[in-house]
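Researcher: Let's run the pair from yesterday's discussion. Sequence first, then tokens, for each.
Model: Starting with the first of the pair.
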Amino acid sequence: MQIIDDIAICVAIMGLDESGNLVVTACNDPFLHLTGATGAADVFPIPFDAQREHPALRTLREKLLACFASSPMQEPEQTHDFRDGTQWWRLSFKPLTRSGGAAAREILVTGFDMAARIALTKGPEVNGSRYRALVDLAYDAIVTMDEQHNITLFNRAAENLFGYSSAEVVGRPIVTLLPEKFRANHPRKVQQFADSYQPSLRRATPPRMDETNSVYGQHRDGSVIPVEIAVSKIELDGGTEFMAVVRDITDRAKLMDLLKKQAGTDALTGLPNRRAFSEFVAKVLATDDGLSVFILDIDFFKEINDQHGHDAGDEVLCVLAECAASLTAERRLFARWGGEEFVAALPGADAHLAHRIAEELRQRCERQDFEHLWRSRPIPFTVSIGVVTREAGEVDVDSLMKRADRALYRAKKSGRNRVEAG
């Protein structure tokens, strides 16, 4: 343990006693000091739950218990930043299971002193081998560059993230790691950061790694990687270096894209929903482009539900969605407005073209001129449509849709299964 103690690394094995309380079954001195455990490193197990009540320790205890409760197959390893005053340790939890076991029997805790790692960069007494060992232990990519924007350090996590070896990129321009379209603007952004950097503020409030500083990197194979980055400016031997801690957020970016898509998608038909439609129309109205819209209502839809059942009614909604979507070009949008009402946005379409598109859709529904494998027998249905074209200077979505709704009302009052212009 002497070597580990010297380079400020803590190691412990955690377990649960018969009552389900956390115990330390083995550890080194830094872990004892970190947790304030009462006991000697040669007398185990040491009760962990009985330690002093402190917010950082309570959070650590909750993380450990959650790790015991989670499936090792789903989360084979977790990390946790332990902060207490001036202490900052990055801990890793690795569940240890018996062969074929589903639940963690013990948890191996390893960690290194982040504050010590940062301190190593500030003085001439820096031990290069220790510093490199700590940097290479980091789970996040760490990249540094000099004042000429050339890479000076590239840790193992960076090698894994970007696909280059350290030997390949050290000395090369930092823009090697950026997509082509971001390279020209990068020097200006670095200069802006250097001019606005406030080290006293950074010490008081460590830089967060969240969506506010999300950018893109480029892998060696050319693929683009969404990442988040925290940057520090370092004065070293009379010069300036910039250190970036880079984290891959590919999974998070995919999840955010999925959530955004779900937020703007109608669950039944798969069409854009009212929110997505309104946002689309608002963007067009913010320009001087021409625009027509129509609102559509399935005639006597309540009778379809009453005669055939709500499942059949849902199928009619989906059939209409398929039929109408096939008529929309790339710049057009067909969406579900709500219930049995649908809407279409036709950028660039004048009143004549919009009326022709709406009439074609009405006729296809009336003739059942579409392909669909009905679950039972085909259900005939017709639609009524109200069409309007943007007036000069019209910028409000609600007023535009109200005019379309009034045109739809006239179509229904005039006998349904027709198109009325407003």
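Model: Moving on to the second of the pair.
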Amino acid sequence: MQETIQEFAQGSTILVDKPLNWTSFDVVNKIRWNLKQKLGVKKIKVGHAGTLDPLATGLLILCVGKNTKLIDQIIVADKTYTGTFLIGKTTPSYDLESEFNEEFSTDNISESDLEKARLTFLGEIDQTPPIFSAKQVDGKRAYDLARAGKEVVLKSNKVTISNFSINTERFPEIDFEITCTKGTYIRSIAHDFGKVLNNGATLIALRRTASGESKIEDAKSVDGWIDFITSLKSE
């Protein structure tokens, strides 16, 4: 027997395939608004379990109603990402949010160099978040300070990379898959990968494919969830 909209709103965890250029909060707000409209209520709890940058796509876990209490335990799970690094160019944000600011020759980079660089990231590493991140610095978001042209100094964090595979067939673009602990910045891995090569690198594509046991294959698009919510019957 299909659940009712009231049962769904009381406590659900849903897997959303976040579209490009949407913030995680855009997705939360869209789902929340449609739930409120369907239920005819002014308030309903909806939250996400782990932010995705606007330029990233893929798995975003949303919790509805009483399931928002599960967010803290969902968020600590390891995450898996696929995407692409561009070797030979850098940006201040380490991704395509900002313009390219440096360019390097990639002529002398060998397959062996790329493999040695990959191996340096496996296991526990110290990672400094990008200055264009949501990290708090003296009560303000780092990206707000960075965009205002102010100096931003962020502390490094220990993160663990349990899997890091690369495909170099399209060099200087390198396709990758990474499984890592909570709080890992893939943009920083791209940037640091370039530095290990005595070169530069930028993250040009990113997709989250798993979080803990949750997989992107089981996710619906935002429109798919709206259609599902709309189709639910009322008690």
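Researcher: Give me one sentence on the second I can quote.
Model: The chain has seven helices and 13 strands.
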